[in-house]
Amino acid sequence: MSSHQEFTEFVAARGTSLFRIAHLTCRSRDEAEDVLQSALEKAYRNWGRLREGSDPEPYVRRIIVNTAISRARRQAILQILSTHAPPDTPAPDTLAGVELRQILMIGLRALTPRQRAVLVLRFFEDLTEAQAAGILGCSVGTVKSQTSKALARLRALIGADLLEEALPHVEP
To answer: Any keyword DNA-binding (predicted)?
Structure first.
């Protein structure tokens, strides 16, 4: 049986249960359908690994919940931004990039000053760990640990998907 066929059978057998999870974690039926579709796309891309001797349903459930949380977080942040938007908003085609930068800036402001400095030096100024350590007057190990903690905090605040989109050269 092909991987595609196995995936199709899985969705046919468990789709109702998966939709129920999505619907309970989302605000509307439409949003639940979008979340479920996104989750199934992610699961399909990894189906070869998932089906090797294990039940893929818990993994797909986790994707659904994480996707719903990420969407809710993004919508909440965008709601906050829209209530504080400046009167001159950019053209719609550039709005997504502006919103992403604003979300990233909100996340950066929530970090400690040292974590923020490390991320700025490493990913915005594109300095090496050694160069950042020299500027901050600390060891390379401190730069590494602060980078790791800062990225973990940003992922928790703005979501891994948004962080990857904002800083594509950051490893997940």
So the answer is: yes
Within 10 angstroms of residue 115's Cβ, the number of other Cβ atoms is: 20
**Residue ranges of domains in the chain:** 3-78, 93-166
Whether this prediction's pTM lies above 0.90 is answered by no
Q: How confident is the model at residue 4 (pLDDT cuts 50, 70, 90)?
A: confident
What letter does residue 171 receive in the DSSP assignment? -
Cβ–Cβ under 8 Å, residues 122 and 129:
yes
133, 143 in Cβ contact below 8 A?
yes
CATH code of the domain occupying 3-78? 1.10.1740.10
| Tokens (6 digits) for 170 | 């950051």
How far, in Å, CA of 7 to CA of 17, rounded?
15
